[in-house]
Design a protein that fits this description.
CATH superfamily of the largest domain: Transferase(Phosphotransferase) domain 1
Radius of gyration: 35 Å
Number of helices: 20
CATH class of the largest domain: Mainly Alpha
Mean pLDDT: 78
Strand content: 5-15%
Structural class: alpha+beta
Low-confidence stretches: none
Helix content: 55-70%
Distance between the termini: 58 Å
């Protein structure tokens, strides 16, 4: 443990206590060592008693810095764990970080390139184009082709700082879980484990580059999404080089309207892009907040999205994809029994759940939504409310579903911001129905058979030999089983004989002992004892020696 980590630990504890977050733990649940540790820090008091608990948590995370801010942002999407007030406060956390020294950025870039910047790039701009909690972006021109590029570089020592904070978070979560005990709703250790996977993934810019290349390839022929070209030969774990693109921030609706952008088409394409990424490619951008999305300045009548920052990507299992699609379709068909069945079949809730009780709970949540016009119904909020309802039935929310819910909420929010009358159901239903028809029914069966024909044709010549081998193995297995049965029966026969002789000898020995002590004539006692001894020896020697069958 270093002095820096001790200082950081004290800073975290001081912030937690200054915002009175220790009050969130009930005193009767707090163990003696927790109460003693709190009492020893008597000079650190709650300085924000006038604020709600949720607001104090938000302010504390904001003060603790980027790692905690990102944790708060992630928690704001976990409506299955948090109540509305807490989620609302954490959603307001903003990741605003001043840029670091450009000399350090230059040094970090050259260390990754193992060459001076000027040997590969011209017009390197010392002033950063953008700055975030983990990385910083500078612009330049690629010397080999004269094209404009951006260089994304990690902040100095950011990995060590994040790992140190994550270690403290993990230790704190484990202690909190012990204090809260079994059955607590928050599940802090699980939350921190999911968060670690997410944020550590953002520390590897080489991985982000590969994600961007894959997403770009998925939409090469698309007129709805453009992913900047990545210069893979210049990408490293701490440096990423990609094409510089120009566009209008998706949140700048005034600028979009000023250039005559077809906002209705743009909003509908956003929904289609989401469902295409999830159901066609099973590889979706899971961090689509407004800062990562721009709109093309070309062809405003036929606009397309520009996607940046592919550090966090999501995937689903084939089973989860099918259950999600069926969930959406069942919801709009008001088939609440099917929704309840899907949650149980998918393993999201326990198989011991009372289906009728769960169905009724789902109906109570979903039915009021149909009093709204279809263009006001939110898929994201449907999922959110279903997860929240399922929380009462011990739902187990998978991390990939949390990413999906967050992404869906982002997409819907952007779509409604661009075009308030957006009818999500009309846009998504044809896509879902077509996808479902491809997954089940004759067409799906045909596609699966077609996909497996090369494998089956490769194995076809081996089938006769495999059949013969299996018949031989079956015959051998039957013979082995018969031998085992014979050995078992022989063992049982010997065991019963031995037990009978031993029990008989014990009876004779007991009788002989009694006769010896009470009878005037001793020969019956001698006979009984002698015969009992002989039978004991015979029984002992006849017992089975081997228990292996």
């Amino acid at each position: 443990m270093t002095i820096a980590s001790i200082k950081r630990g004290y800073q975290v504890i001081k912030t937690i206590l200054n915002y009175g977050l220790d009050d969130l733990i009930s005193k009767h649940k707090a163990p003696w060592y927790f109460r003693m540790a709190r009492a020893s820090l008597f000079w650190l008091r709650n300085k924000h008693k006038d604020k709600t608990s949720a607001e104090r948590l938000k302010l504390a995370m904001q003060e603790l810095g980027p790692v905690y801010i990102k944790l708060g942002q992630m928690l704001s999407t976990r409506r299955d764990l948090l109540d509305d007030e807490w989620a609302y406060q954490l959603a307001m956390l903003q990741d605003r970080v001043p840029p670091f020294d450009s000399a350090l950025a230059r040094q970090a870039i050259e260390e990754e390139l193992k060459a001076p910047i000027e040997s590969l790039f011209d017009n390197f701009d010392e002033t950063p184009l953008a700055s975030a909690s983990i990385s910083q972006v500078h612009t330049a021109t690629l010397k080999s082709n004269g094209k404009e590029v951006v260089l994304k570089v990690l902040r100095p020592n950011v990995e060590q700082k994040i790992r140190a904070d994550l270690l403290m978070m993990s230790q704190g979560a484990n202690m909190l879980e012990r204090i809260l005990g079994e059955g607590n709703r928050l599940r802090p250790a699980e939350v921190i484990e999911d968060y670690q996977i997410t944020i550590l993934g953002e520390l590897n810019l080489k991985l982000e580059a590969l994600n961007a290349i894959k997403l770009r390839n998925n939409f090469l022929d698309s007129d709805a999404l453009y992913i900047p070209y990545v210069y893979e030969e210049h990408c490293y774990p701490r440096l990423m080089v990609m094409e510089r693109v120009y566009g209008i921030p998706v949140s700048d609706t005034d600028a979009l309207k000023a250039q005559g952008t077809n906002l209705k088409l743009l909003a509908e394409r956003g929904v289609e892009l989401f469902f295409t990424q999830v159901f066609r490619d099973n590889f979706f951008h899971a961090d689509m907040h407004p800062g990562n999305i721009f709109i093309s300045e070309e062809h405003p009548e036929n606009p397309y999205y520009i996607g940046l920052d592919c550090g966090i990507m999501g995937t689903l299992t084939e089973q989860d994809k099918r259950y999600l699609a069926e969930n959406f379709l069942a919801f709009f068909n008001r088939d609440y029994h099917r929704i309840a069945q899907l949650y149980i079949e998918s393993g999201w809730v326990s198989e011991n759940t009372d289906v009728l009780a769960f169905e009724q709970a789902v109906k109570v949540v979903c039915e009021p939504m149909f009093n709204k016009p279809l263009d006001e119904i939110s898929f994201g909020h449907v999922l959110l409310e279903l997860f929240r309802t399922a929380r009462q039935f011990d739902i187990v929310v998978q991390p990939q579903l949390v990413l999906l819910e967050k992404t869906l909420l982002y997409i819907e929010g952007l779509g409604r911001q661009l075009y308030p009358q957006l009818d999500l159901w009309q846009t998504a239903k044809p896509f879902l129905e077509e996808w479902m028809s491809e997954q089940v029914g004759p067409k799906a069966m045909y596609n699966k058979v077609k996909a497996n024909i090369p494998y089956w044709s490769d194995k076809l010549p081996e089938i006769p030999e495999l059949v013969i081998d299996n018949l031989k193995m079956g015959r051998k297995l039957l013979g082995t089983q018969q031998q085992m049965l014979d050995r078992y029966l022989n063992f049982q026969q010997k065991s019963h004989k031995s037990q009978y002789l031993l029990i008989t000898s014990a009876v004779l020995l007991i009788c002989g002992t009694i006769l010896f002590t009470q009878s005037v004539t001793l020969w019956p006692a001698y006979v009984s004892i002698s015969l009992g001894t002989v039978l004991w020896l015979v029984g002992w020697r006849s017992r089975p020696k081997n228990r292996k069958f």
